[in-house]
UniProtKB/TrEMBL annotation, chains A, B:
One of its GO terms (molecular function) is beta-N-acetylhexosaminidase activity. This is Beta-hexosaminidase. Keywords: Glycoprotein, Glycosidase, Hydrolase, Signal. The keyword Calcium does not apply.
Amino acid sequence: MLVNAMMLPLVVLSVLLAVTPTIAVWPVPRQYSTGTTPLRLSPSFSIKLSGIDHAPRDLVDAVARTSSYLRKDKLQALVPDRGASSAKVIRGAKSLSSLTVSLTTKGKVRSISEEAIEDVESRVEGYTLTIPADGSAASLRANSTLGLFRGLTTFGQLWYDWDGTTYTLEAPFDIVDSPAYPYRGLMLDTARNYFPVADIKRTLDAMSWVKINTLHWHVVDSQSFPLVVPGFTELSKNGAYSASQVYTPGDVKEIVQYAAARGIDVMAEIDTPGHTSIIAKSHPEHIACFEASPWTQFANEPPAGQLRLASEATTNFTTSLLKAAASMFPSTLFSTGGDELNANCYDKDAATQADLASQKKTLEQALDTFTQVTHSGLREVGKRAVVWEEMVIEHDVTLANDTIALVWISSEHVAAVAQKGHKLIHAASDFFYLDCGGGGWVGQNVLGNSWCDPFKTWQKSYSFNPTANLTEEQSKLVLGGQHLLWTEQSGPANLDPVVWPRAASSAELFWSGPGGDVGEALPRLHDLSFRFVQRGVNAIPLQPTWCALHPGMCDLHA
Amino acid sequence: MLVNAMMLPLVVLSVLLAVTPTIAVWPVPRQYSTGTTPLRLSPSFSIKLSGIDHAPRDLVDAVARTSSYLRKDKLQALVPDRGASSAKVIRGAKSLSSLTVSLTTKGKVRSISEEAIEDVESRVEGYTLTIPADGSAASLRANSTLGLFRGLTTFGQLWYDWDGTTYTLEAPFDIVDSPAYPYRGLMLDTARNYFPVADIKRTLDAMSWVKINTLHWHVVDSQSFPLVVPGFTELSKNGAYSASQVYTPGDVKEIVQYAAARGIDVMAEIDTPGHTSIIAKSHPEHIACFEASPWTQFANEPPAGQLRLASEATTNFTTSLLKAAASMFPSTLFSTGGDELNANCYDKDAATQADLASQKKTLEQALDTFTQVTHSGLREVGKRAVVWEEMVIEHDVTLANDTIALVWISSEHVAAVAQKGHKLIHAASDFFYLDCGGGGWVGQNVLGNSWCDPFKTWQKSYSFNPTANLTEEQSKLVLGGQHLLWTEQSGPANLDPVVWPRAASSAELFWSGPGGDVGEALPRLHDLSFRFVQRGVNAIPLQPTWCALHPGMCDLHA
């Protein structure tokens, strides 16, 4: 059966899927065929790098990790008897002894880590994976080590365990795969609540299993400043929740390298000029309306406080800070934020009003200057700026053509952002916010609920159309998209269950392309969740186990 | 300062609380005073049982656990500097060397475990705790070992850590405490998804920390039958998710004893006649509309299937099963369920129609017979029946006067249930369902959301009035209440974060009494959440850490 999953009309697809088991890979490969022959991994199964001179260390490590997952996943098939009735077939199956991994290009071999941090628009992530049914060697080929890594990830998800035997019932496999969109991210806020490095690394592993290629790290905010920035260490010293709740340059390096070795670029964000209250703990001169009350008049969340954007000193301070922070990260991308600017804060700030008067500028003109100066500082250190949508559609500021916009307030704003001609990343609260539906967190608000209710189910984000309301030309501006976790009510205690497996739905949407059917996807997503748990990531059950073991029988019209 | 927390008008209370730190105990004691003198625990601090001959093993163990928490909690105060500015005061504080624990009654000393499983209406849980400010011995007294256990729990929550010193800034303490309601529960469904014994034991520990005294264990349902019932082992053999996902009689004994030693009674439930599909795997003759399609016409959830209540053989089978299952649990209470009976299932079941015709009974009359027979079986083994509200207000069945009703569909049904004269437990979905707001879980339902949206915040459940719309006489029927976790989308991966700290809000409501102010409660609830995390229970953060460290500053009107 040859399935180009996202190209077939849904009706045809569902008929095909009703008669054969689907491939247990998430995101689903863009083109694949499977068979019905059982095949098991030989006890001496090995992954061999072929013809790769001086194989990069991260590729060798990725091979070792894949081998380890094959040995340790011990995931039983999600059928009522978990595989027992196939025991005889499995025992009698041919054995696969090896997977041969090779590059299809000549020349200097680059590491996964080098390729992962290339500009988002020029990464090469495709691969071809062939697994014959007769036990002869399987083959993984790609034009890049990053592509080989994606293929190894796929290979690691094809197998189940029964009684110590690692098997599939669906050989042969022929897979030709590459992503529909170049940007597939996950945003994590480490400022409202702090996450130890170990939590971030575990999250990076999980992200890599679903081929997410960017960690959008919203590292600081008004509530805390955990990033230790060389030259600006007073910010974290006075602004972190505690001396141990920080990310040192060594921590950042560890995280960035860990991510890159797993095909993930780290796009950091220092949100400006809003969301900066905590800077006042060490630089009160740069912050307007610091902890002003009632906070509802000065900020969207407590505590209030914004950079004095009309001040030349503050603009220079911010530029230096952004350059120093951005230089800690090898990514070509860096986000300067720009969301939720509160005009009343500046109206009531005497220093800002004096600056505006002396410069004969409006607030918008001052914001334009602030943005141009800070962004050109970033360009000096080789970064391409990323901003939240307000900077494109709410404010009248000059942005470089290559500036990327994150659409967050509503998916209905996508067309307006595209209209401005900037590349964009889907991050809309109505589809991709992982924190929605968790109840209100503001104090003394008995009946308060989540501002972006209801909870965004995986089905909802999976149903998103990345080019809705866009012209064909505008559609080319879409780089991809991501789920986002704002952490007002999340911390290490609930990181995994809030994120997984939901964030996998955007990972597939932007890898495999839109138009997937939630009914076809659900059994694969169960598979993924169970596999995550086997690997130590606390993905939640999406349904009663009974439903996971009886595909389709818990569907609405079943 | 003497505070009888729930009796004071809110205005007076909030003024008092604005000027002094509140007691960091959850649930808040019903009567207490605190001071402003620092006091620390001596490195040689010990808890001494005084005049308790042959002290029960579980009391000795509880003392040891309390001592262990005092040593290991290492909870820093939730203030911006986490206690640093109090370091000098703490170092200079007087030391408390001992807590003397004694019973105020004479006669045979009963164990906590014996007292915990007494009839819900006759348990004695009150205690008096006095901690002088001058370092002289503290004193805990009660009429029961169960009361002493509650007092030890309180003692364990009064202390913070700074740099290895365990201290309070609020001595002396005078606490006189006892619960407002005798039933304070938590319901856990182990049928939709299975929870290992270790998860249940960890949950029991957490429950005991907030003085919850009943685990309502919804142990089996249509999806799986994990309970190994002596004489009916075929049910779990064919109905558990796997051979290892069961609760053996040994597991049950372990759980029951673990619970009782922590002051918790285990009220088990075998839901009948609905929610029993899985029984057909071993006894197809007893189940109507087994896995009938479309399930929406035969059950509220897949898979469909209900006990053939009009069949004498099925009635006898059910009675024997209930007696055997109930005999595994020492509690005086046992729930036979009775919710969500589907009439269409019986209308379409030829066997049931034939039984009804031959007996010349309506379905309601057959249900009455079924209920009377099964309940009298339970009485034979010493159990008092508990049922869901439909059995009281939707059906015309004969129930013993002492039958207890669980009100779940809506808090608006409480008055109707009380009207029938039965004792009742608050368990309403609009206040106490922990699973609401998590999105729809049924397959092929892209925009489906939680049927009981929105998410029930702790503030919402905390604001519940247990006697709303009840006469004074009817109010006496209220035994208490509980949070409930139905586990369609929960498993070991997210048990703690879904339950905690939210379930603590009903624990306080039904111990301390209603009328508490969420603004006063929030800092204590932060304290509790942070302490839970220190003790290994993954309670979620309710707010950004900044808010936890700045009480009141994230309130709506701050």
